[in-house]
Design goal:
The structure is a homodimer of 193-residue chains. Chain A is an alpha+beta fold and 193 residues long. Chain A contains 9 helices and 8 strands. Chains A and B meet through strand 5, helix 3 and helix 5 of A and strand 5, helix 3 and helix 5 of B.
């Protein structure tokens, strides 16, 4: 078993998601691929059915708006990535790239269907995981409606401090819905406090 | 069969979600309740396991921030409502109320489990529906990161014009992440265009 499989096995065991036997079966089914930093996984205008699960590394979603990149999401270890274009069955509105070298499970509806048939409990786990991520997205969305940019930054510092160290500041600013200048001013204000 | 069941049956048939027989079985399992406008379904600080599916009417989620209501979501016909406190297993951070008289399916994990056992296809439908709603939430979140308040208003006018007529303007402003004064100015600007 190579190191990529170890990553997945450790995740599955740590979260008690499967018995040892089922975990080994899932690993045998999961098509794991390695990608270099900078790889574009999805382009604006492209149709794609590929879904991902990050075993190592960090992905970034961004829109091109008037020639400028607007970063909307980062995906790091043990996060699933299901591009909107799949649910909408339309060409993608945005790009998805590897911000770092990445090890990903690359899946699609047909691979999932096979896995659902072989591992009856997998569908329950996917439903629970999707519900958890939906709750996280709703929290992120509410965060934009009820909180100031400063509070959003403090919430990120609390919930995911590693991300702040890991990604370029201009991308982080866009992710927080502010300009890089505002983020810089905001951080200086907080340091002085 | 009363009118509430007819609403659910029409929805299930229109979307080809179930065979006629399965639809009748689901209706027999679904606990439908009527609520008066103004009913508070969930309070800040309260623990709840109740999930809803709107058959008729409109619900509103809001936070109390410094004594002021901040509306974050509206839920109308044929939308599921799963409060964040269930996924987080914590007391709720927000209120959920009936903005209009409402007819709702009121469910919980145990009712869902029974329904999953009796209707094997229901879990697939729930997974697909949850994935669709997750995509919608991601679109709503990206909308805050890449678009101006004016563009967010125009997007809502495009995607859900009925909502703009249906809810009070100060609640709509908060839902769009702006002040009521900004919404009013923005609408006046657009009328003049």
């Amino acid at each position: 078993m190579d190191a990529s499989n170890d990553l997945l096995l450790a995740y599955l065991q740590q979260n008690n998601l499967f018995s040892e036997m089922d975990a080994q079966q899932l690993i045998a089914l999961a098509p794991i691929q390695h990608f270099k930093k900078g790889t574009i996984l999805l382009k604006e205008g492209q149709r794609s059915k590929a879904e991902y699960f990050v075993l190592k590394g960090c992905l970034r979603a961004y829109y091109m708006v008037d020639g400028e990149e607007k970063t909307t999401e980062f995906y790091s270890e043990f996060e699933p990535v299901s591009p909107i274009c799949i649910a909408k069955n339309e060409p993608s509105d945005y790009y998805l790239t590897c911000l770092e070298d990445a090890i990903l499970i690359v899946s699609d509806a047909s691979i999932q269907q096979d896995a659902f048939e072989q591992l009856p409990n997998l569908k329950n786990i996917c439903l629970q995981m999707t519900e958890q991520i939906l709750a996280q997205k709703q929290i992120a969305l509410n965060n934009f409606k009820i909180n100031s940019p400063e509070q959003r930054y403090l919430n990120l510092l609390d919930s995911n401090p590693a991300l702040i160290q890991r990604v370029p500041q201009y991308q982080l600013a866009s992710y927080l819905g502010i300009t890089p200048q505002s983020l810089s001013r905001l951080r200086n204000r907080l340091i002085k406090k």
